[in-house]
Amino acid sequence: MANSIIAAIRRDIVLYGALAANLGIGVAKFVAAGITGSSSMLTEGVHSCVDSGNQILLLYGQHRAKRPADANHPFGYGRELYFWAFVVAILIFAVGAGVSGYEGYRHVVAPEPLSDPTINYIVLAIAAALEGTSWGLAIKEFGHKKGDAGWWDAIRDSKDPAGFIVLFEDSAALAGLAIAAIGVWASHAFADPRIDGVASILIGVILAGVAILLAREAKGLLIGERAEPEVVETVRAIVAAHPDICSVNHIRTIHTAPDSIFVAISADFADGVSMGDGETLIDEIERELHAAVPQLSSIYIRPEKREDAAGSSAAR
């Protein structure tokens, strides 16, 4: 329980840090875009606003996911966070990438006169510092959770969308800032304002790619993903260690929240175990499982003959 609370606090710190950075950066970018008429700065302003809205949605999702189980949702509301993560991915694609692409196209077709880029460079430098700080927090938090796993494998296996969404957003934001800076510089260096519009289109392409990756990961979580193989093997070892268990037929798991797992176990009990002894054995196994894997929120153990379960033992 203590670890879950600490993890939730760390997630909130990352989200609030990203929200504060994006709100400040967004205002500065819009001011700079209004003064200079830069397409890429306007695009970056929209990008920051979309990111701010995303952090608010994730915080809202985390709040909703904490509601206790009730009659209509006996396994709780934890997966509501996964729904809002999917909404965030759609917003990045529809609003972030869409507006960026449109603004870029508009400035390529009808370029605006160039103005002094100094304020753009100042805002971009401040934005890079703030985004870099937020990105550092996200990297530190995700690196703490991923352990020895590779970064991409950790993202694919992660059951907490808040962590990897902020990481993706901040990475895309830093890449966007670099492209915006190059676009502003090149527009003035070559006296061609259309280059600034091309930079906006490139930022939109990056956002579209990030949105597709996030939507894919969020979809998997929303449909339902199994627990880590280490968790499944721990459950199997604990159940199989009891002398009255002849064999473990299968173990099926699903995450109902980042820190909540439902597990269904089919096991062959010894023929001599009575109904009362079986109930006592199940209670004992459940206590051991809760102690070994605190994330197990619901445990279902089904006594089942090995030959009867053979046909359904493929999924683990």
From TrEMBL:
Residues 18-222 form the Cation efflux protein transmembrane domain. It comes from the Bacteria. Residues 228-304 form the Cation efflux protein cytoplasmic domain. One of its GO terms (cellular component) is membrane. It is a multi-pass membrane protein. GO terms for biological process: zinc ion transport. InterPro entries: Cation_efflux, Cation_efflux_CTD, Cation_efflux_CTD_sf, Cation_efflux_TM, Cation_efflux_TMD_sf, SLC30A9. Keywords: Membrane, Transmembrane, Transmembrane helix, Transport. One of its GO terms (molecular function) is monoatomic cation transmembrane transporter activity. It holds the Pfam family Cation_efflux. It is found in: Membrane. The chain crosses the membrane at residues 13-32, 81-99, 119-138, 164-186, 198-216. PANTHER family: HUEL-CATION TRANSPORTER, PROTON-COUPLED ZINC ANTIPORTER SLC30A9, MITOCHONDRIAL. Belongs to the cation diffusion facilitator (CDF) transporter (TC 2.A.4) family. NCBIfam families: CDF. This is Cation diffusion facilitator family transporter. It comes from Sphingomonas oligophenolica. The lineage of its organism: Bacteria, Pseudomonadati, Pseudomonadota, Alphaproteobacteria, Sphingomonadales.
